[in-house]
Design a protein that fits this description.
- This protein has about 450 residues and is mostly helical.
- The protein has 19 helices and no strands.
- The protein has helices at about 10-40, 45-75, 75-95, 100-130, 135-160, 165-175, 180-190, 195-200, 205-215, 220-235, 250-265, 270-285, 290-310, 315-340, 350-365, 365-375, 380-410, 415-435, 445-460.
- α5 (about 135-160) runs antiparallel to α13, α5 (about 135-160) runs antiparallel to α16 and α12 runs parallel beside α17 (about 380-410).
- The longest helix is centred in the first third of the chain and has 33 residues, at about 10-40.
- The chain is globular, with a radius of gyration of 22 Å.
- Keywords: Membrane, Transmembrane, Transmembrane helix, Transport.
- It is found in: Cell membrane.
- Belongs to the major facilitator superfamily. Sugar transporter (TC 2.A.1.1) family.
Amino acid sequence: MVKEKKVSHKFIYFFGAFGGILFGYDIGVMTGALPFLQQDWGLDNAATIGWITSSIMLGAIFGGALAGQLSDRFGRRKMILATSVIFVIGSILSGMAPPDGSLFLILVRVFLGLAVGAASALVPAYMSEMAPAHLRGRLSGINQTMIVSGMLLSYIVDFLLSGLPTTIAWRSMLAMAAVPAVILFIGVLRLPESPRFLIKNNKLDEARTVLGYLRPNKKAIDAEIKEIQESSKQEKQNVSWGALLDSKYRYLVIAGVGVAAFQQFQGANAIFYYIPLIVEQATGQAASSALLWPIIQGIILVIGSLVFLVIADKFKRRTLLTLGGTVMGLSFIFPAILNVLVPNADPMLIVVFLSIYVAFYSFTWAPLTWVIVGEIFPLLIRGRASGLASSFNWIGSFLVGLLFPIMTASMAQEAVFAIFGVICLLGVAFIRIRVPETMGRTLEEIEKIGERKGLEKKGA
């Protein structure tokens, strides 16, 4: 019975947030584990290093898409539980990889990536469906805070375990991801199903009971149920993938998918995955002894995400993205210019510039990408368009993780980051030319802007 699952709204939001922490931990843990793995297995092949690091994102590309479809069939709660189980199994298997088992580890991390992609789709969706309307806008920022907190936690765990023997160190780092996964599983066992899923499956009494746990205004519950029913009717309309290219929607689809793609191709994850190796190449210091740098980057990310929560509704989306993208681009390009003008400059300057990049990324492109993706797509195509944007984002993350070590093996680090810097500036140009301002506008107003732009292009 639903009554047995009664929990406070604080408990629900905590475990929604905890899913973000778990997602962030699994994304960040390889940053510290990789140097020890390289020492243990004698890995020096750039392509293999890239595949081991990025394989989790390859799985995530498919995990997000599968989770969305399966959660519509089986429910958000059951799919989050299944995701937790995959996290546990994948983490333990990662720590048990056989000696020189690169292929085994790659395959296991693809499997683990299914859970990472699923968590990135399921947990925010579950939280937003449980939350009252006035809290939904803040959830994107809160979820981002929890993800980067999970990354910071993984960096701290990596640092604390770095004193262990090499082969035990990296295995322990990867296997430790099972601990928060077990906590998430136990917590979600007590959670009720999403009222939106219950209503879509004609379980109105159960949905009313769950909403009764979460809404202080009991009179508004019936109105909310009717609103969800009307929204569900629209979502059930059969919209093909081809509709995304219709002139009525094309402008907004390109804008939303483009922002999601640029966020990853700008190279942020090259820093998050490889900062110890970046420090090693810049200074000659062993990567395994440079594990304080990921913690510094993680602290910057968390602080930046908190700054975003304060300023999110005070500055226009395009203004913040333009500011962030410009500073990020220059932070990548300046080290290359300095390397030419002052060849004997302190090599640690590149790490200082990377820290500036992370600071501006953390309160602009990192959270705002998902705010825009949530706002910009018309209701009728929102499901498919959001899925497409998420897929492009994960593809970008996968390619950056895969190609960065290959690129730095064939050219100077400064040159590689300069390429990312140019992409950052192209992202700014894209924002100014192709992305409408969404702050303070209703979803209907944003949709009309897209239709008008589409007609203008068609007329031209």
